[in-house]
Amino acid sequence: MSSGNMLAIFYFLLEGIGNTLLVTFTCFLSAFLTGLTVAVLRRLSPLPLQKILDVLVFILRGIPILIAVFLVYFGLPSIGIYVSPLVAMNLSVGLISGSYLAEVFRGALKLVEPFEITVAKVAGMRQLQVIINIELPQM
User: Fold this and answer.
1) How big is the CA angle at 137 (ends 134 and 139), to the nearest 5 degrees?
2) Which label site among 7, 36, 96, 124 has the fewest CB atoms less than 10 Å from its CB?
3) pLDDT tens-digit profile of 52-98?
4) Residue 34 neighbours by CB under 8 Å, 6+ apart
5) How far apart are CA 57 and CA 34, in angstroms?
6) 109 by DSSP, 3-state: which?
7) Can you give the residue ranges of every domain in the chain?
8) Which one GO biological process term can you cite for this protein (predicted)?
9) Is the pLDDT reported for residue 131 higher than 90?
């Protein structure tokens, strides 16, 4: 093998590493934001919306990621929404992984002592302030 071929292979490997890091970072960020948003909404919302979010999380956790990628990549163009492969993967992996993280965050929010929440409310904090200043830092 000549050194020119080795150099070309090395450049392909570097490009692949860059793409892998890009996909990993964007999917993690979208999953984290989705999971945190759903967990906080489940905590703040009235009961009917909580039940809707519970069902949504339950359904999304049951869908295999590959099926979700196929549905987004091949299904969205059939209704007139065209997305790049990176956006399709980011959207599908972000939603599925975000539903798993929503359950993790829900469990973490339930572990905060009720006494701490009561004390914060007695101190004059609103529900959103309690979540931001008391519950989220303890997760």
Assistant:
1) 105
2) 124
3) 999 999 999 999 999 999 999 999 999 999 999 999 999 999 999 99
4) 94, 95, 97, 98, 99, 101, 102
5) 11
6) helix
7) 3-111
8) amino acid transport
9) no
pTM, full prediction: 0.83
Q: How far apart are CA 20 and CA 91, in angstroms?
A: 16
Q: CA-CA distance, 117 to 20, in Å (whole number)?
A: 41
- Give the confidence band of 1 by pLDDT, cuts at 50, 70, 90: low
Query: Are the CB atoms for 102 and 50 separated by under 8 Å?
Result: no
Give the whole-angstrom CA distance, residue 13 versus residue 3: 15
> Torsions phi, psi of 29, nearest 5?
-65, -45
CA distances from 87 to 103, 104, 119 (A): 24, 25, 44
* CATH 1.10.3720.10 assigned to 3-111: yes
Q: Which amino acid is at 95?
A: L
Task: Give the whole-angstrom CA distance, residue 87 versus residue 74.
Answer: 12
Angle between helices 47-62 and 85-110 (to 10 degrees): 130
